[in-house]
């Protein structure tokens, strides 16, 4: 088994090397400021850092804003326990092409290390302002560009709100908790707690609760009891199974949904089938990805009770224990659950998007009911990646971050590709009509394959976007050489875009004067191992585009040696969207 694991990990490292070579854009030179459009990125979690790196790699200047200090780099991962780790396989959490995970299920330290290295590799440390809580974003009437918080930061051609769905810890007040003689703490604050030999009560049934259970088991707690109002689907920590479940392109329960649900009940839950949701289908809410909890339940180290908390007592919690199928608040039997420590695994407050313009929240087109769930209706030069979703089967850290970022860059560079406000409404209305009977909601729940399908169809059904397909889907594009004449006479520009594995764009200025190196400015922006910044090329105003394949060598990021030890606050008016702490487990989009 050890040999097999070694071979699998070796294969994984080879795959990651290929991904780096093919899709990783190169960073700008040190202290270089790109003359192209500017994009503001709000939040320095995985989404914010990755989005900013994509922008720079394709020739767009960026400015990052973070409400917290330097310690908040990494978003929610900067707030979790030292024992926290990724619940899904890291192949589904490659939030930027240039990162390289050493393990299939990396811990918090390795994830933060990758975020920090990405931040530094793309010179984002020179472009980040900490301690600025963005409270207002508005459009400048004169230029039509965006102003972030204060005009002193200048204007921006685009805005990416990367505030995520997990903000400050949510700690509800429960009747009688002042009487409890034991310790009460939030699940994100377990690093300094000593749980060895103690009876631990965990309030909550989401990803935070399962992580708290794993932490308590690691600390050798005597017994752990989970107290939850309901149960969610739990799926195995297996990238093949998780990937197959996310392949439902309809993003809702179908006539075939019974099959994976039945297989999970019989093959995964087995004797623990009572813990599976009684009525909720698999494609209605974010599932939990975990193997260990069911093993601990079978071993007797963990108990799971479904019901309602009545109040705290001096030595425990008075609990209304309900049977499976009885709704919340329904009849049950009262039990006193004794414990020494109570862990509030109650998730995190959802960061607000209220700093965005008020028109972004006008019903019925308030988040998540936006174009592609990410672009506010009427504002294609603004997106809120990973900040509007409610439930999903997929991942918050993968190729969609780059896809959404490059869509934004395309809209900025080429106005002919922008969707109109009317079309954005039509897309939302059509999606809601298509999924109107979906138990999980139309845009409140989606699968990862559905999300990718949205992006692909948005490109295919608009001929003006066809030339952008290699750029948006694969990140292939860069400016190869641009010459600007210094004379004031009229200039006819002609742009050729060569697209493929690598591409290059040449803009030739034909003037009455003779072109020379002294009369022009030459700029080269590398986008990965030779990937041209196609976005900036079209931004120059070109409409004469031709495509052909031209393979080019890509430059991989420096890879640390195997003996080096590894070392999401995403600041955001989601008025109607409830918190889903399953996002912290990285399951969702």
From TrEMBL:
InterPro entries listed in its UniProt record: FAD/NAD-bd_sf, Flavin_mOase-like, FMO-like
SUPFAM superfamilies: FAD/NAD(P)-binding domain (SSF51905)
Range of residues in the leader sequence: 1-17
Keywords of this entry: FAD, Flavoprotein, Oxidoreductase, Signal
Biased composition (Basic and acidic residues): 495-521
TM helices/strands, residue ranges: none
Domain of life: Eukaryota
Segments of this protein annotated with the region Disordered: 485-589
GO molecular function: flavin adenine dinucleotide binding; N,N-dimethylaniline monooxygenase activity; NADP binding
Annotated Pfam families: FMO-like
Skewed-composition ranges (Polar residues): 523-546
Family in the record: Belongs to the FMO family.
Protein name: FAD/NAD(P)-binding domain-containing protein
UniProt organism field: Talaromyces atroroseus
